[in-house]
Amino acid sequence: MEVTLITGASSGIGEALSNKLAEKKHNLLLVARNADKLQKQCNQLSKTYGIHAQYIVADLSKPNAANEVFDESKKRNLLVTLLVNNAGIGSSGEFIKNHLQSELDMIYLNNASLVALCHLYLPEMIKNQKGSIINVASLAAFVPSPYMAAYAASKAFVRSFTQALTEECKPYGIAVMLFNPGFTTTNFMNTPANNNEWGQTLVKGAYTQTSEQVAFEMVEALEKKKTFHVSGRGNRFTTKMAALIPNAIIAKVFANQKRKEMNL
Ligand SMILES: NC(=O)c1ccc[n+]([C@@H]2O[C@H](COP(=O)([O-])OP(=O)(O)OC[C@H]3O[C@@H](n4cnc5c(N)ncnc54)[C@H](OP(=O)(O)O)[C@@H]3O)[C@@H](O)[C@H]2O)c1
């Protein structure tokens, strides 16, 4: 059976996307850690939209989790024709004060597992001449972000990797899209590494979208076969403006402004 695999499908943007794609009759393979949530979601999506929705529980911050997801999908005889690498977490605060293992786990989740899933599923997409990939980065992928240093760098990796992969995959007819949300009201800022004073300061005044709006734009971009999309008009404007200013200046101004807001 052909399926769309969405990582990080149990909440926020991934959950909203699972709803939108189920409505469009995609059969779904949802991946995240929260088994109860995934089970309820699969039941509800299957019942509401008459599709096949199933899930695999995986902690993608762990080495080999991507391989286990791939092996399990093969065992179930599933053919992934759309892979959405959406799972990701952030971290806010002064880098030297952040917990090192949490930073490394974040990098494994945001980068290594994303690369592994692309590497595992692309060969069959190419062989069958059918398939597409969406990698979710962020506005943070475009500029260094002091006090969110490792997160922004992990998203810059996603941006660079995906834009290169887009070109490598074109001759095979496989579409690869870099999708960049801006600040979106999800659980993203409620995780232990983000839910702190720095996190609150970093998102203050940001242009905000709901996860439904972001998922709507993602599906629209997919249907238009876009290879690049920044979600939200305000975010698109910000990205264009940021491209005109050297990164070092943006980082300096951002750091000074945030230190001032934190009374440092
Ligand atoms: N919200 C924003 O402002 C924003 C802005 C730019 C980019 N983004 C990006 O958008 C993507 C989705 O984030 P979101 O805002 O929707 O956040 P969210 O509501 O916190 O959702 C994150 C999803 O990732 C899953 N996840 C977290 N850690 C995982 C792990 N170790 N293994 C497997 N799955 C894991 C979570 O499920 P479990 O907890 O069940 O594992 C959840 O389904 C991320 O890549 C994020 O970087 C978000």
Features:
9 strands; single chain; Rossmann fold; 264 residues; 9 helices; seven-stranded parallel beta sheet; alpha/beta; two-stranded parallel ribbon; binds NADP nicotinamide-adenine-dinucleotide phosphate; 50% helix
Largest sheet, in brief, is: 7 strands, parallel
H/E element sequence: EHEHEHEHEHEEHEHEHH
> CATH homologous superfamily name?
NAD(P)-binding Rossmann-like Domain
Question: Helicity, in percent?
Answer: 40-55%
Which descriptor suits the 3D outline?
globular
- Poorly predicted spans: none
Commentary on this structure:
- The mean pLDDT is 97.
- The protein has a seven-stranded parallel sheet, with helices on both faces.
- Helix content is 50%, strand content 16%.
- With 264 residues, it is of the alpha/beta class.
- The longest helix has 29 residues.
- The chain has a single domain, classed as Rossmann fold (3-Layer(aba) Sandwich), CATH 3.40.50.720.
- Helix 3 packs parallel to helix 4.
- It binds NADP nicotinamide-adenine-dinucleotide phosphate (NAP).
- The site of NADP nicotinamide-adenine-dinucleotide phosphate has 29 residues, from helix 1.
Write the layout of secondary structure elements.
Elements: E1 2-7, H1 12-23, E2 28-32, H2 35-49, E3 53-57, H3 65-75, E4 79-85, H4 100-128, E5 132-136, H5 149-169, E6 175-180, E7 184-185, H6 197-203, E8 209-210, H7 211-223, E9 228-230, H8 233-242, H9 247-261
Helix pairs in contact: 1-2, 1-7, 3-4, 4-5
The structure holds NADP nicotinamide-adenine-dinucleotide phosphate.
Brief synopsis:
With 264 residues, this protein is of the alpha/beta class. Helices cover 50% and strands 16% of the residues.
